[in-house]
Amino acid sequence: MKKTMMSLVLATVMAAPAFAEQPIQLSVPGNNLPDGNVKGFRASLLYGQTPQVTGFQLPILGLAESQNFTGVSVGVFFGANRVTGNSTGLKMGLANWNDGRAKGADLGFANYTGGNFTGLQMGAFNYAGNLDGVQFGFINATDRINKGIQIGLINYDKSGTFVSESVPIFPIINARF
């Protein structure tokens, strides 16, 4: 019994760092040094994946991926961001990809949010499932503008434009308030 208890205690102590929040993390393909959620600074070289990031993120030459993100991310040398859950804050990179909801600002060549986007998307191509905010780019697209404005060469709203519900595309400006 005593050996079993010691083994459980030892296993718990050794596993605890894997679940701890890290103040600094370097992500490279297949490894996070150290492993765990980040509350502080994270640099991702080529490709890095971690569950949760709160703070400042620096994707370098590739993709920084997390389940949830809160903070500021600045991609350098073709750095890009992907969040599979929810995102809050500022993301700047070649591409910003949110599978869930996003709040804040996405500034990049291409910005995609599958769920509801609240804030500013600015890039050559912007897409939001639902938009509460501003899209500014050459091509802007959404399934529905809840409250917001699209400013660009081509503005697409699947639910219709301010001109008519049967006209999904309108050039230069489209809005709903």
UniProtKB/TrEMBL annotation:
Keywords: Signal. It comes from the Bacteria. Residues 1-20 form the signal peptide. This is PhaC PHA synthase. It comes from Photobacterium sanctipauli.
